[in-house]
Amino acid sequence: MQRLLCDIPVSEKDAKKFAYDIIREELGSIQYPDKPKLKEGVWIVPITARYPRVLSDEIREVPEKVRFMNFENVGEIRIDANKGELLSRSGYYEVSNAIKENLEKVRTIVEMALVKVGANRFAQLPFPEHIHTPIVDILSWILINDNLDMSQDLSLIGVDNRDKYLQNINLLESVGLLRKSGNLIIPDNNLVEIETKYKNLTEKISNSIAFFFEKGYTQIESIKQVLGPHLTITAFCYEKALEYGDLLSINYETIDRMILGIYRQEVKRIKLPRYLIQLESIGLLEETTISGKVLWRGKEEIFRRIQGEEEILQPIRNFLAL
Predict the structure, then answer these.
(1) What pLDDT is attached to residue 59?
(2) With DSSP H G I counted as helix, E B as strand and the rest as coil, what are the percentages for the chain, rounded to 5?
(3) Phi, psi (deg, nearest 5) at residue 279
(4) Is 294 strand, coil or helix?
């Protein structure tokens, strides 16, 4: 059992110093001990990570700056306050996973805010892009056939697909686009209103999808299945801007590395130029070339609206330049 080289009983200062030494020896330089708490004869020292982000704006040639995202309680160290012995400590992988979860939380919340404010623009993506979800199938069926009979119309698509369709029906029901009437799925008030307002079927489906994005943004995992890399790329650009505190220009190579890191498939990389062009065409990103470098950044209006989504961003405000 590892002992403290100090007097017994152990003071708060000694506990923090001991925890600091353990962190530096076993975890690295971005973690540090927070204020120790004494509980039932044990010093509990929370571990906080000061995660660095190196940011630069290449379009304006602004020098690089380093911002730090403080992730609290990514682990802990426990020390016997009476014997001066180390009782337990969070391991390297436990702390690393906690940091990773915090980074994923930031990304997910930025995606939610982006989907809410950019709903109408995301809905303008060509229908072939919406290939990973039955949502478009369900809405299209209802708009053309008036209702969907769960016992008959879903009987020939297999159990797994049927379950997937039923899950998506529930999502559309949760935002008031559809409702159940016995065995039938029929339009709910919000879909009826959209049908009344728009005459063209393409407009009806686009506005129905936009409504689902805007009102159902908390169902982000389902929305990711719809938008795929389009959402991943856009959220990456706006997350960097939120960390930086202003719109940030990002080079093509950086976006390319991000896509490869997330999808780990060459097929997504070959499609990246098309994704970027489509995102520019619907007004979510813009492209410029400076000294032969192709750079991409978010749109001012979208960025300000994301910043204004205080309720959504509240859980990560301490992590970003807000």
Answers:
(1) 60
(2) 50, 20, 25
(3) -65, -35
(4) strand
